[in-house]
Design a protein that fits this description.
Blueprint: H1 2-15, H2 25-55, H3 58-62, H4 77-84, H5 88-119, H6 125-136, H7 140-153, H8 160-166, H9 168-184, H10 188-196, H11 201-212, H12 214-230, H13 233-238, H14 247-254, E1 256-257, E2 260-261, H15 263-296
Antiparallel strand pairs: 1-2
Helix pairs in contact: 2-15, 4-15, 5-6, 5-8, 5-9, 5-12, 6-9, 9-12, 9-15, 10-11, 12-15, 14-15
Length: 298
């Protein structure tokens, strides 16, 4: 009797709507595997093209014959030119220093701002939070004009410090908004119990809020680091010396001579420049998604 009941239940479940369209293998191919394969091809093709172009000699790059998607005679000449005939190692180091420093400065300011807006409950806190997020929507193409005047006035032009101090202008607003949503998801009762026990606001922030907000901090940090690493307009405006340039600016300005494009070295520089961000996302993608989820669900 039990077996019949179980069989009837399975039969009813098979007739019920839901994910049953994935039962047969052809349907899984049409609804799952084929769309995923198309998505992966579109997503990974730029990286494949950069790899192919990096190892393809100039003769194959300029030839109209042969397979453009494959390399017949791979070469390391483009990588050698990039690493030894240009200041690419300096550009990479500059980008790393500026991105890491600007990210830590932005996270420090964003944590204090987000906690104050969400937990201290002062008058017009909501409007302050909204205004901070609206500041993120201001395009950098408008902000770099007044920022350039400030940089020249402070005599910081053509230095890494100019980028370190200007990048937080667009990193802090979004990071603050992201952390505001994540702090709001942390139960307020934890802070109330700590206040009753005599803890200060700073102790609560350091010992209670920040340990619980690690996914949100990692998410905001990844976002800030990515924006800093890929930033172009400020780096192009505030830096002119080759040894101080960052990767996005150096690759474009130093490897394009008039109407001559060194495609092999350009693609090698783009490939090496994208690897740190790809590795960062691959290690912390779970924290990144959970941090965004904690911020958006509120």
């Amino acid at each position: 009797m039990t077996a019949k009941t179980e069989a009837a239940r399975v039969t009813d479940a098979g007739d019920a709507p839901g994910m049953n369209y994935l039962v047969s293998f052809p349907r899984r191919i049409a609804t799952v595997y084929a769309p995923l394969a198309a998505f992966l091809i579109v997503l990974l093709f730029p990286f494949y093209w950069m790899i192919v172009t990096t190892f393809k000699p100039n003769e194959e790059l300029l030839s109209r014959e042969g397979n453009p998607f494959w390399v017949k005679n791979p070469t390391l000449a483009h990588i050698k030119k990039l690493l030894f005939d240009t200041a690419y190692p300096d550009w990479l180091w500059n980008t790393l220093v500026v991105s890491v420093t600007a990210t830590f400065i932005s996270l420090f300011a964003s944590v204090l701002a987000a906690y104050a807006i969400e937990r201290l409950r002062f008058r017009s806190a909501r409007y302050v939070g909204l205004s901070i997020f609206l500041a993120y929507l201001v395009p950098p193409s408008i902000l770099f004009i007044p920022l350039a005047a400030v940089i020249y006035k402070l005599e910081l032009f053509d230095s890494r410090l100019a980028l370190i101090l200007t990048y937080p202008t667009f990193l802090i607003p979004f990071a603050t908004w992201l952390l505001m949503g994540y702090f709001k998801s942390i139960p307020l009762e934890l802070e109330e119990c700590a206040l009753i026990d005599g803890a200060t606001r700073l102790q609560i922030l350091v010992k209670i809020i920040l340990p619980l907000a690690v996914p949100g901090l990692i998410s905001a940090g990844i976002f800030a680091f990515t924006l800093s690493w890929n930033e172009f307009i400020y780096a192009l405006t505030f830096v002119s010396s080759s040894e101080v340039k960052t990767v996005p600016v150096g690759v474009v300005t130093e490897l394009v001579e008039g109407d001559v494009y060194h495609w092999g070295s350009l693609m090698a520089g783009a490939l090496f420049g994208s690897l740190p961000v790809a590795v960062l996302y691959s290690f912390f993608v779970e924290y990144y998604v959970s941090g965004l989820t904690g911020a958006i669900k509120e």
